[in-house]
Recover the amino acids of this structure.
């Protein structure tokens, strides 16, 4: 009889309702002790369901209060759910499906660079990410950087006819590490490198600051650049063995005319990481993790409207993007001339941002304070 199925049906409805309530409470930016306790219990008792990526505290973002000149801490529950639970992986898979449908050939048209037997091949993935293959063309060996879409990366590997022997992961976020599992399983001798502090999925070879990775003629150095995440690394391909420019694969530390958000650190931490990059040569090629050039240069024009280097670069970028062409690489020499996040030592930015944070506004900004203010303004610029 029909009524015999009612108990199980009501149990199913009640379970779904309880799950929905739990998710709402987990995602709500609340300071309520009961909700914090519920979040903690849910995390602690869901070991089989959750992807525990990273071991830091719940991240917080500094959000600039419009008009008030004050900043407030807003718990970034969405960020924690993305990085520490299975919901983040599900969101990444949804992004992957949508991007493959929308951009079957990739979001941008890229151009590889060849230097005396070493090839750098950008691979457009997701909606604005870049993965990379670094290839020793003589040995037919390849290294993949941040392979977020294993299908796109594998297609490039097969097209180039190379053997994938290493994956370099800049950080744990799924849009940079999501392909580690499939590629490492498909290429059984492939090693997965990254920071042990970041909880990189399927990590096999942990790296520390200034560790070297050698593949054929490729000599690649890992540099610790925390801030975006606690264990963020960038990778510097030494140009000396192949008599060409060095190449910096910057992940989410540095973009063309921009830098990444500070999810797991302070402005001081991020400034130190950016200074690490500033110590490299002007001819170093910058290969970033995202195609953000046009948006970033637009913001740079707000804070430095009379910067002629920025204006020239913006005109070039706009021509590139009209044809959906990639804007990478740039050089660190170029970035020094127009990237506001690398120009915190410049008086023109101090003047552009107005009085400093002292009681009378006479003290000026420290470089870290200026970087934090720039980041806040950039976030507001993007939200408009």
């Amino acid at each position: 009889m029909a009524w015999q199925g009612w108990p199980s049906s009501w149990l199913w409805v009640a379970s779904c309702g309880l799950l929905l309530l739990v998710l709402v409470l987990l995602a709500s930016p609340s300071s309520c002790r009961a909700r914090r306790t519920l979040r903690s219990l849910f995390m602690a008792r869901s070991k089989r369901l959750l992807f525990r990526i990273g071991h830091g505290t719940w991240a917080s973002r500094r959000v600039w209060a419009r008009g008030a000149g004050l900043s407030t801490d807003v718990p970034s529950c969405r960020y924690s759910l993305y990085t520490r639970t299975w919901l983040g992986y599900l969101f990444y898979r949804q992004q992957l499906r949508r991007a493959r449908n929308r951009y079957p050939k990739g979001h941008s048209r890229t151009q590889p660079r060849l230097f005396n037997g070493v090839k750098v091949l950008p691979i457009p993935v997701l909606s604005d990410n870049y993965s990379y293959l670094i290839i020793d063309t003589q040995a037919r060996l390849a290294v993949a950087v941040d392979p977020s879409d294993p299908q796109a990366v594998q297609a490039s590997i097969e097209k180039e006819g190379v053997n994938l022997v290493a994956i370099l992961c800049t950080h744990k976020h799924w849009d940079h590490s999501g392909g580690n599992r499939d590629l490492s399983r498909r290429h059984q001798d492939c090693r997965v490198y990254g920071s042990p502090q970041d909880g990189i999925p399927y990590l096999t070879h942990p790296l520390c600051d200034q560790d070297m990775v050698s593949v054929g003629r490729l000599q690649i150095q890992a540099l610790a650049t925390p801030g975006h995440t606690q264990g963020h690394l960038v990778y510097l391909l030494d140009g000396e063995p192949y008599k060409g420019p060095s190449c910096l694969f910057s992940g989410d530390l540095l973009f063309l005319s921009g830098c990444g958000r500070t999810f797991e650190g302070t402005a001081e931490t991020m400034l130190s990481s950016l200074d690490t990059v500033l110590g490299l040569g002007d001819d170093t090629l910058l290969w970033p993790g995202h195609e953000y050039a046009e948006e970033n240069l637009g913001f740079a024009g707000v804070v430095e409207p009379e910067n002629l280097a920025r204006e020239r670069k913006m005109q070039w970028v706009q021509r590139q993007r009209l044809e959906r062409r990639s804007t990478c690489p740039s050089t660190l020499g170029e970035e020094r001339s127009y990237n506001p996040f690398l120009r915190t030592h410049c008086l023109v930015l101090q003047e552009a941002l107005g009085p400093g944070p002292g009681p009378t506004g006479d003290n000026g900004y420290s470089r870290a304070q200026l970087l934090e203010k720039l980041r806040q303004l950039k976030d507001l610029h993007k939200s408009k």
About this structure: Confidence is low (pLDDT under 50) at residues 1-8, 28-75.
